[in-house]
């Protein structure tokens, strides 16, 4: 189920949401030139972490791993990105969207039980 196209689409949309939230957070917590650095830098950093550290032959990704990591570490990096998005929304005073994001992340991972099992055993 983790590689089902609908679940992969959900994960992709969650990733995009976290990138957007990262930019929004960067804009909201700073002023001046720093604001522009964070509005672009935070999403860029999140995307680099997401795209660079991967498990070789992950069936839900391209199979390529620019920097190969164990499955558990990959899972923790994914969760850290998603948790950042939830935290950022809460910290900016948007608890309902934060809760919605958190629930959707949990649903995604419940549907991805086969992928999680695969990652843990890598």
Report strand order across the widest sheet. 1-2
Q: Kindly state the mean pLDDT as a whole number?
A: 92
Q: Summarize the main sheet.
A: 2 strands, parallel
Query: Roughly what fraction of the amino acids lie in strands?
Result: under 5%
Query: How much is the radius of gyration in Å?
Result: 15 Å
Number of strands: 2
General shape: globular
Low-confidence stretches: none
Helix content, binned percent: over 70%
Explain what you see:
By secondary structure, the protein is mostly helical. It has one domain (5-120). The chain has 5 helices and 2 strands; from the N terminus they run ααββααα. The protein has helices at residues 5-28, 32-52, 71-91, 95-111, 113-120; strands at residues 53-54, 67-68. A two-stranded parallel ribbon has the order 1-2.
In short:
The protein contains 5 helices and 2 strands.
Features of the shown structure:
single chain; 122 residues; mainly alpha; two-stranded parallel ribbon; 75% helix
Topology record:
Layout lengths: L4 H24 L3 H21 E2 L12 E2 L2 H21 L3 H17 L1 H8 L2
Helix pairs in contact: 1-2, 1-3, 1-4, 3-4, 3-5
